Automatic annotation (TrEMBL):
Organism whose genome encodes this protein: Tolypothrix tenuis PCC 7101
Protein name stated in the entry: Small GTP-binding protein
Domain of life, source organism: Bacteria
Cross-referenced SUPFAM superfamilies: P-loop containing nucleoside triphosphate hydrolases
NCBIfam families membership: small_GTP
Length: 158
């Protein structure tokens, strides 16, 4: 999982792996690794989830963490437009590092649509590029399981 700081990466993983959400913000230091087993098309898939610390102007994602990845989730906070621009930069850097592997752009914090800063036209433009975009809320669980299931399916289809 990659994205700007405070986009909800850790909360999304916690919701998916443990079905929990915390209002408390905890900065990820380095990388946090979780595992979850899911079933797709009668196959058991072990997902190893690497939650990388947030990217900002003071930190640089250690791209070496991504080597060997079969896919990734690009997390955007819909209440902060600048996280969309950061996601575009990160997607380019990740692709330069590990090549063209399946990924999904997550528009997180969908439960806060009254505070949304990203225009639907911008979302449409991303989808026109052929990117899969899924709206999520780590707080209420909307779309969270779908994101991981969809990414696992994309990886299997490669």
């Amino acid at each position: 999982m990659v994205g700007a700081f405070a986009t909800g990466k850790t909360s999304l993983v916690s919701r998916f792996v443990s079905s929990i959400f915390s209002e408390k913000y905890h900065t990820t230091v380095g990388v946090k690794i979780d595992k979850k087993t899911i079933n797709i098309q009668d196959k058991t898939i072990n997902l190893i989830l690497w939650d990388l610390y947030g990217e900002d102007e003071f930190q640089k994602v250690r791209m070496s963490y991504l080597r060997g990845s079969s896919g990734y989730l690009l997390v955007v906070d819909g209440t902060r437009r600048n996280t969309l621009e950061k996601a575009f930069e990160l997607q380019t850097r990740v692709e330069e590092t590990i090549g063209n592997v399946p990924f999904i752009m997550i528009l997180n914090k969908w439960d806060l649509t009254d505070e949304w800063e990203i225009d639907p036209v911008e979302i449409d433009a991303v989808q026109l590029k052929g990117w899969t975009v899924i709206k999520t809320s780590a707080k209420n669980g909307l779309g969270v399981a779908e994101v991981f299931q969809t990414l696992a399916q994309k990886i299997m289809d490669e």
